[in-house]
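Example record

One chain of 114 residues, shown exactly as stored in the release files.
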Amino acid sequence: MIVKVIIQREVTPGKEQDFFDLLRQLRFNALQQPGYISGETLICADDTRKVLIISKWSSIEEWKDWKADNRREKMDQALTKLQKSPAVYEPYVFSKFKAAAALEFPPPLQKIKL
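Predicted structure tokens for this chain:
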């Protein structure tokens, strides 16, 4: 089941170059991970310190494996030092009944036809 992970980050003023250099390294390493499909980085048009990263994975398990990887955790800690606050991670699955049932979502979400 495909999962998209939304990661919100806010860069500390003056740390942008170091932040984006490290973010590129993190993406390079993600490219080599089982289950990684694609990713994109968006910068807020109204506040260029706000960054949204969207990555696409073959499964939630493969995303969780990567999130728990020691190399990724070390880079995430380094990124956190360049941010105003810790990153916010939110994994999403496509809104189909099977996906909701497979993840054992609460019954109201299983009954909704999207």
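Notes: DSSP finds five helices and four strands in the chain.
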